[in-house]
Write a structure and sequence with these properties.
This protein has a 7-stranded mixed β-sheet, sandwiched between helices. It has a single domain, classed as Spore Coat Polysaccharide Biosynthesis Protein SpsA, Chain A (Alpha-Beta Complex). It is an alpha/beta fold. The chain is 35% helix and 23% strand.
């Protein structure tokens, strides 16, 4: 079984006053490097792609020494769905037999390699087409999507991301409890609150 990873990191981080959120240092590493190293440490059998958009050159330089594929999403400003499409389209071209993908965001600093592996184990054990993390009373990413769901992901538009599909097709979703995924650094207030914990 071959499972790839797509890291979504194309956003402009408007709530950070123009500073690239992906390059925020957290415990000695930038958010983007932290999630890329976490993805690599999970040691899945498939490729790892990082989808870039805003601040692409700066972020790419941060990952230059890592064995990850860097993808350019020229349409990043049109919403998260365009980054999902960029990653899936690339994988469909380069790895047409991929069984599933795990979708990660760069702003969830507590994601672990063990969690990524848990998603893949749940996929094998349950046979469900989507495996999502449960936190804050709902489900969301990190999440795994099996190949039969790729067409649905490619049909998303605007700012509809993976969570939209998880909610729309609840009967196809198995859940993995992971409350730390609720830590999501979307603003300076989030960073300040998290560092106080």
């Amino acid at each position: 079984m071959t499972i790839g990873i797509i890291i979504l990191a194309a956003g402009a981080s408007r709530r950070f006053g123009g500073q690239a959120k992906q390059l925020l240092p957290v415990e000695g590493k930038t958010l983007i490097r932290r999630i890329a190293e976490t993805a690599l440490a999970a040691q899945l059998s498939g490729p790892i792609a990082v989808v870039l958009g805003a601040n692409q050159e700066l972020i790419a330089a941060e990952l230059a020494d890592l064995p990850v594929q860097l993808l350019d999403n020229p349409d990043w400003a049109e919403g998260m769905s365009t980054s999902l499409k960029t990653g899936l389209t690339a994988f469909n071209r380069t790895h047409p037999t991929l069984d599933a993908v795990v979708v990660l965001l760069c702003d969830q600093p507590l994601i672990t390699p063990e969690l990524i592996r848990q998603l893949t184990v749940a996929f094998v054990e349950t046979g469900k087409l989507m495996i999502a993390c449960r936190y804050n009373g709902g489900v969301g990413v990190p999440a795994l999507f099996a190949r039969p769901i790729f067409a649905d992901l490619l049909a998303l538009d605007g700012d509809k991301g993976a969570r939209y599909l998880l909610q729309k097709r609840k009967t196809d979703v198995a859940e993995v409890d992971f409350e730390p995924a609720a830590i999501d650094l979307d603003s300076w207030d989030d960073v300040a609150n998290w560092t106080k914990l």
